[in-house]
Amino acid sequence: MKIKFINIPPFLKNKYIIAIILVLIWLLFFDSNNFFQQIRFSREINKLNSERSYYLEEIKKDSIAKKELEEDPEALERFAREQYYMKREGEDVFIIIPDD
User: What is the mean pLDDT of residues 48-75?
Assistant: First the structure.
C-alpha cells in the first residue's frame, strides 16, 4: 500500500517565507494595531477633521458677529431685542410662536 502525500509547493518549504507569512498574519489580525484598527482610526481622523473645519467656520462667524456687536450700538440693541426679548421703557413685546 502506497501513501500519497500532498504536494507542497517548494516556496512554502522555505523557513523564511513561512516566518514572513506568520508575521503578516499576526500583524493583520492579532496585533493591537492591526489592519482593522488602522482603518477605524483613519475613519475617525477623517470625521474629526471635518468637525474641526466646521468649528473653525463657526468661530469665524462668531468672531465677526462679536466684532459687529462691539462696534455698532444699533446691532447690539437689535441682538438684545431678538435674542433676549428686551424692550424699551413703555413698549410691549408680543412673542408669536408658529404652529408646527
Answer: 95
More confident site: 34 or 51: 51
- Asked if residues 69 and 75 have their Cβ atoms less than 8 Å apart, the reply is yes
Count the residues in the chain: 100
- Cα-to-chain-centroid distance, residue 18: 40
CA-to-CA distance for 96 and 76, rounded, in angstroms?
A: 22
> Collapsing DSSP states into helix, strand and coil, what is residue 67?
helix
Would you place residue 59 in the very low, low, confident or very high pLDDT band (cuts 50, 70, 90)? Answer: very high
Q: How far apart (Å, rounded) are the C-alpha atoms in residues 22 and 15?
A: 11
Question: What phi and psi values does residue 61 have, to the nearest 5 degrees?
Answer: -60, -45
The packing angle between helices 35-71 and 73-84, to 10°, is 120
Eight-state DSSP code of residue 33: T
